[in-house]
Structure formats: C-alpha cells, structure tokens
Amino acid sequence: MGQAFPKAALRPFLPADAPLLAAIFVASIHELTSDDYSEEQQEAWASAADDEAGFGKRLASELTLIATLQGAPVGFASLKGNDQIDMLYVHPSAAGQGVGATLCDALEKLAGARGTTGLRVDASDSAVDFFRKRGYVAQQRNSVSINGEWLANTTMKKTLGAGAQA
C-alpha cells in the first residue's frame, strides 16, 4: 500500500473554529469508535460538544492545534498544561492518512520544548493501539461516567527524550 497522502498542515485554534471542531469530534466518535463503545456510550461521549460555546472555551483554554488538508480542517489535538494530551480527534474521512500522527508529533515536540519529560493521555479503547505504536505505555484502566453511561479508557504515558525536542 504505497499510496502517499498529502501531509497535513497545522495551525492554531481560533474561536471561530469551535463549531467545525465540534462536528469533527462528534463524527469521529460516531464513526471510529463503534467497535469499542455502544451507541449509548457514543451519544454520551459526543454530548460534550452539544454546548459549542463551552466546547470552544475548553479548546481555547488549552494549546489546541488544527490539522488541515488542502486548507480544510480535518482534525485537532489539544495539550492540557504541559504534560497531558486532552483531545486528539480526526474526521473519519481523513483517518489513516497520518493526520493523527502529525498532530501527536507536534504536541510531543511542543511539550518537549516546554521542558516536559513525559506526556500522558487517557486513551479511548479505540485509540490505545495508536498511542502504543507511538511509544506510550499503559499505566491503568479507568471507568468514566458521562451522562449516566460508563466508558472505559486507559491512562498511558510516554517519556520524552532528546528526540522530542523541537
């Protein structure tokens, strides 16, 4: 499978991006996590974007990057504090094209440049393999209650070394 995909460009989050990123968030949950979560769990999880203003404030309060292909946003990721990947979502139409890896690479470099020695993420069951392949190690399993639904995830950590500098 030698098909080359165009590399995603990155730009910072702007408040006007909130509605589009909320749509990417919801589409990603509904279309990419059905093997691991029930419809009810997906609905509860996706409801975090129901309040677009609140969703936008959350993104604005963190270091949030947007990945674009041909100028169109196709994914986003946010760094909470200096050491936690809070969100990393890719639109289903761009899944498997390296967008998530580009976003994760950027957050790792930014965290390293801020002097952080390690990153952690609470990875959904659907994202555990993605993070494992990037060198993240599972630390513990979690159960999180969202709108009456219990969702499992895994806290994973990665030590950032000399290769993580910007």
From TrEMBL:
Gene3D superfamilies: 3.40.630.30. Pfam families: Acetyltransf_10. Coiled coil: none annotated. Residues 8-161 form the N-acetyltransferase domain. SUPFAM superfamilies: Acyl-CoA N-acyltransferases (Nat). InterPro entries: Acyl_CoA_acyltransferase, GNAT_dom, N-acetyltrans/Recomb-assoc. This is GNAT family N-acetyltransferase. It comes from Bradyrhizobium denitrificans. The lineage of its organism: Bacteria, Pseudomonadati, Pseudomonadota, Alphaproteobacteria, Hyphomicrobiales.
